[in-house]
Amino acid sequence: MVALVLPRLMDVSAASRRSASVAERNLSALRSIYWLLLVSGFIEPLLYLFSIGVGVGALVGDLTLPGGAVVSYAAFVAPAMLASSAMTGSFAETTFNFFGKMKYMKLYDGVIATPVQPFEIALGELAWAMLRGSAYSGAFLVVMVVMDLTTAARAAVAFPAAVLVGFTFGAIGMTIATFMRSWQDFDVLGSAQFVLFLFSGTFIPAQAYPTLLRWLVEVTPLYRAVHLIRGITVGGSGWTWLLDIGYLLVVLAIGLVIASRRMSRLLYR
Amino acid sequence: MTTAQPLIQARGLVKRFGSFTAVDAIDVAVRAGEAFGFLGPNGAGKSSTMRMIGCVSPPSGGELRILGMDPVRDGPEIRARLGVCPQLDTLDPELTVRENLITYARYFGIARRVARLRAAELLDFVQLSERADSKVEPLSGGMKRRLTIARALVNEPEIVLLDEPTTGLDPQARHLVWERLFQLKQQGVTLVLTTHYMDEAEQLCDRLVVMDGGRIVAEGSPRVLIEQHSTREVVELRFAGESQEPFVSKIDQLGERVEVLPDRILLYVPDGDAAVAEVTALGLHPINVLVRRSGLEDVFLHLTGRTLID
Hints:
The complex is a heterodimer of chains A (about 270) and B (about 300). Chain A has about 270 residues and is an all-alpha fold. Chain A is built from ten helices and two strands, in the order H-H-E-E-H-H-H-H-H-H-H-H. Chain A has helices at about 1-30, 30-60, 75-105, 105-110, 120-145, 150-180, 185-200, 210-220, 220-235, 240-265; strands spanning about 60-65, 70. The longest helix of chain A has about 30 residues, at about 75-105. Chain B is of the alpha/beta class. Helix content of chain B is about 35%, strand content about 25%. In chain B, helix 3 (about 95-105) packs across helix 4 and helix 8 (about 220-230) packs across helix 11. The longest helix of chain B is centred in the middle third of the chain and has 16 residues, at about 170-185. Chain B is globular. The interface between A and B is medium-sized, with 25 and 31 residues.
């Protein structure tokens, strides 16, 4: 029994150790310029929150959520900004940076000559992307509490949810990156990301759309992420948050599997 | 028992890319402690073979065992004991010279403290200590190559795979690399290298295979290969005129074999000076005459009818 189980356990620990070494490489590569990028990623959702949440919110007034709760427009928009900044943060790392490392820096061609395997590279890069996404989320949640858009207790619960969102979008981003042919493809991705950002129940409730469109919106990953986090920060989403978590976990798993398969195909020529 | 077993054993090894066969059923056995070479022109299948041995390219057919293990199933275990210097440097441009080594060691699960020590030792070994904190980009080609070799040694490998270790380097840089590789060999490390340089193969390899079009066309030590496939000496003759061709029939009786290149004729003979005298006795006056010993270049020319570097 021990002889059967032990090698497997060692496999898991060796694999996670190797994934950690991939994330560690990114820490070594951190340079001052990178901090500037990090800061810009944090500022962007704040600008949206102030301009639209607070600014436009003054014209819109309060909103009545489907659950019956009445919230300020800023409190409605803030969790959506949180979800989309988690998306943006991990997307930046897993699409643009990941593609550059794989295709132009040929970084992974060197890495695969070591015991590290493509799946472990994917996991390590994802963990790193998640760290960046989490930093954004944590800072943004603090701002939300300070502005009285949610309570500290709710923010504490929203944080792991935002981390999960970062993870899921990281896996999606990495999968997309393995299909990218050149930098031009990123323009298309950027547009798609913006459409998601505008229409995932971020600025107006999905209930406002015609039925067919509403269904379409509700199956997108960003909508589920917004729905989950809004449910936590303003309350009133009942048990449907379980559906959101299940959805995000499934997408995360599928993304990871496809991304590491694609990487194997591209690297093990 | 186990020491007699080859470290690398290939039987009927094949690599196909679509309909193109890069490696066409080769048999290779590399023993512990030897320096083994794959010699051949570009496109002969050397790099594809090296990538399969490095466990980063699954074989399309045949059998391959490395350190007694299966490269597809036991990839991580095998790679933990290999050092790889790929044809194109895959150094990390975002890290410094030293960080490149430390980070690479971490991929092997080597403790950071040990990695730091080893990086310092290896930088010393390849004479890059002074550039330890420089980025990779400003390094010269020779320095990058040496860093890649140092990186391949960071896990104290049993086998080091070197794919064209000195291609593109100036003579001085090449000699430094050769010296270091020779030192490694002295330490008992098994070296497997590919090259299209004859002098490199003659300098470093105990045994080699000559590859052409994905197949092995000859195998042996450099000395034995030369003895088997060439004469002791070669006379290189260059005649005035557009083509060397008209002169071939006049002198082809003088040697055991004649090869015609665009700019000269090679006459394979046991005694070069005697042959030159015979050429002069025929009333022929080449504008250039060179007598030299046979080398692997001549073996290759004989076996494939082509020169190595075109």
